[in-house]
Amino acid sequence: MQVFVTGATGFIGLAVASAFARRGHRVLGLARTSEKARELMRREIEPVIGTLQEPGAWRNRAAACSTYVHCAFEYSAKGFELDRNVLRTLSELGGRKGEARTLLYTSGVWVYGDTGTRCVDESTAPNPPKFVAARVENENFVLSCARPELATIVLRPGCVYGGHGSLTAAWFDGATKGAARFVGDGAQRWAMVHVDDLAELYVLAAEARRACDVFNATDRSRNTIRDCAEAASRVAGGNGRIESIPVDEAIKTYGPMAEALAFTQHADSSKAARLLGWQPRHAGFVDEVERLYLAWRAQRAS
Length: 302
Ligand SMILES: NC(=O)c1ccc[n+]([C@@H]2O[C@H](COP(=O)([O-])OP(=O)(O)OC[C@H]3O[C@@H](n4cnc5c(N)ncnc54)[C@H](OP(=O)(O)O)[C@@H]3O)[C@@H](O)[C@H]2O)c1
Fold this sequence. Notes:
The longest helix is centred in the first third of the chain and has 14 residues, at 79-92. Helices cover 39% and strands 17% of the residues. It has helices spanning 11-22, 34-42, 59-63, 79-92, 133-144, 169-176, 195-208, 225-235, 247-254, 257-261, 270-276, 289-301; strands at residues 2-6, 26-31, 46-49, 67-70, 101-106, 150-157, 159-161, 180-183, 192-194, 213-217, 242-245. It contains twelve helices and eleven strands. By secondary structure, the protein is α/β, with parallel strands linked by helices. β1, α1 (11-22) and β2 (26-31) form a beta-alpha-beta unit. The structure holds NADP nicotinamide-adenine-dinucleotide phosphate (NAP). NADP nicotinamide-adenine-dinucleotide phosphate is lined by residues 7, 9-13, 30, 32, 36, 51-53, 71-74, 106, 108, 157, 159-160, 166-167.
C-alpha cells in the first residue's frame, strides 16, 4: 500500500507511520518543518512539507496513495473545524483510477464520557463532554463518507502511553519537581493503550479494509490514576509523592479537558481482537513504568 499520514511527526502519528513502514508499505508523512521532515526520513518515511490549513501543498501527493491516515490535530479553538476540513479533503481525493481506498480517523474514548465501571463498546452511544462533542460529529462525517471505493474507519484510542508519553509524561515531569500530580481524587481508572499496540491496530485495520467501521483501542490494564502517578513518582525520584488537584482548580489551568482527566472509563476492545486479530502486547503503564521513565528522560535530554 501507499499510505499518507497526517500528524506523522506527532506522538501517535509517528508510531503509526513507522508501523506501516516496518510492514513494507510506502509511507508519506506530513511534516511542518524541514527538521521534522529529516526525522521522518531517518525512519524511511517520505516527508511532504505542509500544514493542515493548506491542503493544496499535499493534496496531489496524498492522492497518489490508497490509504489516508489522519492523526494530526491542532490544539486550537479551530481544531475541530480544521479537522473536518482535512477529513473532507482526504475523503474527496480521487486516488488512482479504479484503486480501492481507505481513510482512517483518529478519535478517542473520551467520546463515551465518564463510563464509571460500566464497560462500553463500539455499540454504546457516545456521551461526550461538551468540549469533545465536535469529535463525534467528525466521526459521523467520516463514516458518512464511506462508499464502495472508499472504506472509512474510526479508531478510538484510550489514553496513549509508551515512549516519551503524552498525558502520562506529566507524572514524570511533576515527580522530578516534587510530586506527580493528577486531577481528581485518583480513584479513577483510564482506558489506556501502548502507542506501539495502537499503531499495529491502524495497520491491521487498513490492511483489512473493512468498510465503515469503528474500533476501540485499549489494553486490559485497569490501574487507578493514583497507582499510575505513584509508580511514576517512585521511579522518577519523587519518592512516591503524589498530589491531587481538585477538578474545579484544574479546569482553571487545563481548561475543559480537566473534566475528562477525572473520568473513569472502561472501554472494551474485543471487536478489534475478534475482527482484526489485534492483541495488545503491552502490560500497562504501571508494569512498564521503569522503562517508560527512561524513555521520557531520554527524550528530554535530546
Ligand atoms: N495522546 C493521547 O493519549 C490520545 C488519546 C486519544 C486520542 N488522541 C488523539 O489523537 C490525535 C493525535 O494525538 P497525539 O497525541 O499524537 O498529538 P501530538 O503528539 O500533539 O501530534 C499532533 C500532530 O499534529 C500535527 N499538527 C498540529 N497542527 C498542525 C497543522 N496546523 N498542520 C500540520 N500538522 C499539524 C503536529 O505537527 P508538529 O509535530 O509539527 O507539531 C503533530 O504531528 C489527536 O486528535 C488526539 O486528540 C490522543
